[in-house]
Amino acid sequence: MDFGTSVGTEIVKDLIYAVTRQDRYSVCFSSFVEDVGKEKQMLTLTRKSVLDKADKAKKRTEKIADDVEQWLNNADILLEEVEILEKKAETKKSCFLGHCPNWIWRYRLGKEAAKKKLTIRKLNTNIQNQILNALKDDEVRMIGVYGMGGIGKTALVKEVGKEAEQIFDKVVFLPVSSALDVRKIQGNIASALDFELKEEDISVRAKRLYLRLTSGQNILIILDDVWQMLDFEAIGIPFGENYRGCNILLTTRSLHVCTMMHCQRIIPLTLITEEEAWAMFQKHAHIMDKASEALKGLAQEITNQCKGLPVAIKAVASTLKGKKMVEWVEALETLRESKPLDIEPGLENPYKCLQLSYDNLKNEEAKSLFLLCSLFPEDSEIPLEILIRFGFGLGLFEDVNSFERARTKVTATINKLLNSGLLLQAEERPAVIMNDLVCDVALWIAKKEIHVIMDPKMDTKTLKEDTDIKGTIKFLYCYNINEFPDQLDCPNLEILYMYKDSEGSFKVLVLHYHRILKGIPSLLLAQSIPCLTNLRTLCLRGCRLDDLSFLGKLEKLETLEFYNCMINELSNDIAELKKLRLLDVSLCSIEGNPYDVLGRCSQLEELYFIKNDLPERVLNDQNLVKFFHKSSSLYRFQRYHLDIGSSDYKFKGDMRSKLLSVDHFDVSTSSAAIKDLVQRAEILFLRNIKGSCKNFIPNIAQIEGRSTNELIELHLDRSDEMECLIDTSNLFCVGIVFSNLVKLRVTWMKHLKALFHGPPPPGLFEKLEELRIAQCSQLRSISSLEKLNMQCLKVLKFENCPMLTSLFSPAVIQSLGQLEVLNIRRCDGLKHIMTDEDAEIVLDDNGQQSYRLMFTKLKHLVVKWCEKLESLIPVTFSKGLKQLECLEIDKAPELKYVFHQDQLSCQNQNELHVIEFPVLKLLKLLHLPNIINICPESYHPMLPCLQNLYLQQCPQLNVMSVSHSIFGSMRQEGDTKWWLEIPIFKTYGPKAVATCSFPRDFTAPVVGDFKM
């Protein structure tokens, strides 16, 4: 994916409100000296945000757009200029009339270049506060927000949802749309709550969902784009006076829907003001103050034509950005003269505005992809991969004869649509979203070419009887219809997209006069397919397929997809399809052995075979790799997501191009072709590794050539032989390895003693962000890490490594400057997490001796089931834990202090030292029979932001000291009034558990087995 689009949606997302709150830069510079300091600070923060997200994009192998690089260069220049200006300000105390206008102008350009995508509008703070206040009101359980399409309802409630995360345990957002799908709504809610609904019966699913939603959590469900009254009971959503743990926030175009749903608070969202509309248009059209008055006048008139509708303003402004004056004039005339027919009253202006944006694309590929997106349910996320496959199958791109080239084309074209404001970027995956109003306009534009049937009750006779429709229709989308014509004569049909849930069934579908029928994403009846001799793309989803021999007749087939199908066995005919380039078999249940067929598909460019349910007899075969030994196609794979054998690895829809998981990986018998896939993989999971394999490099992957520098994530699981990850002790020349590795997981290695032997290769682990080591019974030390630069490491986890006695020396910690999460579990031999041995002593701000600050970015520290643990972190080092948010210690019977005495603290025992943990919100001290206090006596910890406290079985703990740490000077030593005021919350068995939620006034329960 090109980062050019991503930067517009991501790099300044956190700064949107700060930007929209600012007034326009003043032309009066009397207070410039003060303002310039603030602007410098904001620019510095923005630059850091851009750099961070650009680095993340590079790790995802995304391309950084030129304008982003240019923005960063400009920012550096501007910051230098600001330094000069500030120095002049200090010496001359003048307002710099000769400098200010130029600097502010150039700075604004820098900010504009970094913000290709802004918010749809500055959210109405008053309305947002109204909703949040209603959510805090115990008497309000359902809130309705209504307003016309494209006005910004979705953006508003998404922002409210982010704020509401501070109020509710869970916030669930899901689009509903006009085509009501109860099963999909149930599934989306379940997914958001991290549990799975496997039942098919909707009523059974509803009961299970109800039980989950009434489990005690306080949940907010945001239902976006509701078109009709919803039956909450049928869905499984609890509501009403009997249960008050579930709040509903819905958006709709209709006040009537709010009324029917008995919303207790109804909030209208109106069109934005002329001033807001003009400001928005200027931002998206990049109209600067220096623009000519003629252009500004045209822009103002065009803005007025958009009638205050944000989606129309954004689309029109984006499409005119950078255009010549004559094109602006033509756009205005088009908007004035256009009179769209058959449009719902009140929507004429939005329709003609969006029509103008469509017409201005000037690119048939972009127009075709835009119309293709309208086939999908409104507001749904449309994966780029689907658009790539459909676009390739339809032949939308000239002179494109490979999927990799098609990906480049589709990505570039989608970027144009995103920049035009006609599509939105999905937040969490490579996908796009088409606003519901934009979708309506797209279907209206192509009403003669696209026909959509969304309602089970709609009469499909029109397709059979209407001559005009039959003669012109190219794309047909049918969703959940109860009945389909048994014959359909549509000679120009190119895509038939049929979706049906598992409860329904279709009659036989026969297509006649198939001229250039190129793509059928979902066709449930295999009997109808063999006659489609020109078919290039076939996607079968949710089908039971007992016989796939019909595929042999589809000689022009290039893309074949099976998704969530029940398959008797993969047909040998698949291997005979000479033009087949892409085969995707995912989430399918297969009775036979599919690997025999897969190994003979020598014509493929791309193979996807993951998350499939295979028989035990197949999974128990420890030599499945043998089916690929003679395959010549493996070397030609441009992309592969391949799972060979049983795998615990969870592929999460990752769009990385090369993923490989192999169970029973035998180094001695694996072919060169399989090893080539290993060498080229970006995500690699090898399990049950054998074949005299003492290491990963060089026994599995060679250090010469490509090595493993494309690898981003590596998981090695279960080996009785492997002693280290990399062994360079016998290598004469060591090249670069793992130069892009971000995640490393090593588990169940009985004889692993170290991560590497010999000199570490240059740059080893420099980009590593996450390291997990578990069930490695011989691992004694990680001290070798001090030889590496691991400044990118953020997550470090150890579990069940009983031979570890000490984790970190100060030298190792110095290489872990970005560490955010440290999690240690079941390391029975561990005595110290960190020692102060050989620690560097420096002078602090007061001229006192101190250790160099460590763990300055650490947010989560969790230690559990470490029976011999005597100390965590020296108390002097704890001064660096300014970012610590969560501290959990459980079952460490030898531990006396969380932060223990060290050499420097022993020298200063007569002085009282205050150590503040300014952002610590969660503290758990459980099953610690010898714990006395958080810090030694001469050190006093302050926990001003503590929100949750858990104490259990800590009989030696001085609770009054903990109280003083929380309340500070508000409580005096010996004052137990705070204890008496706090009610008991929960107790379990003979030992009490303290579960305390502390708002600012700290009125919460504290219970436990400890000293008063």
List how many beta strands DSSP finds.
47
Classify the helix fraction into a percent range. Answer: 25-40%
What structural category characterises the helix and strand content? alpha/beta
Extract low-pLDDT stretches. 1-33, 92-124, 455-459, 499-525, 969-1012
Which value, in Å, is the CA radius of gyration? 32 Å
Distance between the termini: 60 Å
Q: How many DSSP helices? A: 29
Shape: globular
The portion of residues forming beta strands comes to 15-25%
| Main pleated sheet | 21 strands, mixed
Mean pLDDT: 74
Domain Disease resistance protein At4g27190-like leucine-rich repeats: 698-828, 851-960
Domain NB-ARC: 128-286
GO biological process, one term: defense response
GO molecular function: ADP binding; ATP binding
Description:
Helices cover 30% and strands 19% of the residues. It is an alpha/beta fold. Helix 10 (232-235) links the parallel strand 3 (219-226) and strand 4. The two termini are 60 Å apart.
